[in-house]
Amino acid sequence: MTIVHAKHILSPDTILSDQAVAFDEKIVAIDSFDNLLGRYPDAKVIRFEDAVILPTFANPHVHLEFSANTATLSYGDFIPWLNSVIAHREELLTKCDEECIHKAIHAIIESGTSAIGQISSYGEEMEACAKSPLYIRFFNEVIGSNPAVVDAMYASFMERFARSQKLANDRFKADVAIHSPYSVHYILAKKTLEVAKKEECLVSVHFAESRTEREWLDSGTGEFLGFFKKFLNQTKPINEPLRFLQLFEETKNLFVHMVWAKDEEWELIKSFQSSIIHCPISNRLLGNGVLDLQKARPLPYALATDGLSSNYSLNMYEELRAALFVHPRNEAKAFAKELVIHATKIAHQILGFDAGEIAVGKPACLQVVDIPKDLKKLEEIYLHLILHTQSPQKVFIDGTEQK
Ligand SMILES: [Zn+2]
After folding, report:
1. Cβ contacts of residue 17 below 8 Å, gap of 6+?
2. What tens digit of pLDDT does each residue of 161-193 get?
3. CATH no., domain 57-351
4. Ranges of each domain in the chain
5. Among residues 100, 95, 98, 74, which one has the least CA distance to residue 86?
6. What's the CA-to-centroid distance between 271 and ligand 1, angstroms?
7. What's this model's pTM, rounded to 2 decimal places?
8. Centre of ligand 1 from the C-alpha of residue 334, in Å
9. 3-class DSSP state for residue 3?
10. Does CATH place domain 2-56+356-401 in 3.40.50.300?
11. pLDDT tens-digit profile of 223-233?
């Protein structure tokens, strides 16, 4: 048994003061420090002064395979970025060996995250993920727009999916990702989603990320025309967006980005089991604009870092700060609280994991973070947590100290 005491606890919805948390793998009790010590006199005790205990984050959209990128890829605009991915993909994948994956996982845990959605293109990182302390939804991704490659791409997906299913347990789940409406042939998407439905997987899909994607899917014009001609000898988009979206009617879906989604697309996905994944830093760095949060709010939404292929960090505190600043019409204090709740409780719910709350019976996945000593108004704690935190002091996953 461990007892952790700090000045405050964010449950995350409510602020508890003068309380401590007792836990083994799960949270056993929340009470005053003296009461808990009386009940568990042999417990290991960790006390903090100006600090707050909150649940660890879930980061539902990362691409660990691209963790070797620092400045190889071109940021600023979507097509130059995509061209740089194509030009340097092999080099980056080769550089991202086991040590690189471990380093990325370590950075994720140290910065207060205990669950991720890993989008996997090739599956080389699968074992390292399954062995890590993280809770992982492992999204095996399909891509392929050319009808001639559909069978081969499906076979590659099935091989990886079967391999990940063998590793599956309470904390590592085999799931499905459809790359996007511009890059996955209708038949390939349909066949893959049938597997997802049958195996009751979560499905992740990039949708309406860039203006370029919008122009291409709506009218077959824009920068994608040259891109598809050059790389795939393709002159027309392969999917009509609404018809493509209808494929997701019977699965549980994570729609990623949604910056350029149209009203009728929002309406359609609201009739499905959908959640929205918002990656403000990635969207900003690739020149894609800002998600309209008002449209996302009727659905469960969470923040994600995306991969190091379109971000400088996998630290959720960076993402929280970015979200705070790219949505200036939201009152800062109330919005900070909303963001913390969505990055913890809601993000875990989206991934189907039980952590994300400091409550009796929940997994003991928690972080302890310093708060400014001069904090006067307790209700401003969420805002100052986002503004001042680089990294937590301590991180526990299922009661085990990770940092
Ligand atoms: Zn992505």
Report:
1. 7, 8, 9, 378
2. 999 999 999 999 999 999 999 999 999 999 999
3. 3.20.20.140
4. 2-56+356-401, 57-351
5. 74
6. 23
7. 0.97
8. 28
9. strand
10. no
11. 999 999 998 88
